Amino acid sequence: MSIPSSLLTSAGLIGGFAVARATKHRHWGGVVAAGAGLAAMETCRRRTGVVPALALGATYTAALTGSHPLAKKIGAWPSVFSVTGATAVAAHLLAKHRG
Question: pTM higher than 0.90 for the full model?
């Protein structure tokens, strides 16, 4: 049994930000976020194929980059939670086994 891609994306976005904030080294947060994002894509690929996995990767990347300007408007943690929720929904829908 594999970990759902929606859980992996959530762990990557929230965990990556938490690690970056706690260590005061953004690159460590990036390592966490990248690892979880790649794991989520692989889980999605195994379940539904390459195209949904690539779409998930694009969604995850957009969430990571979009959270920064959003944080300037609503705050860091609210931004992280907002993009995490949206990405989790997308991950769930993209990783649904079709057939």
Answer: yes
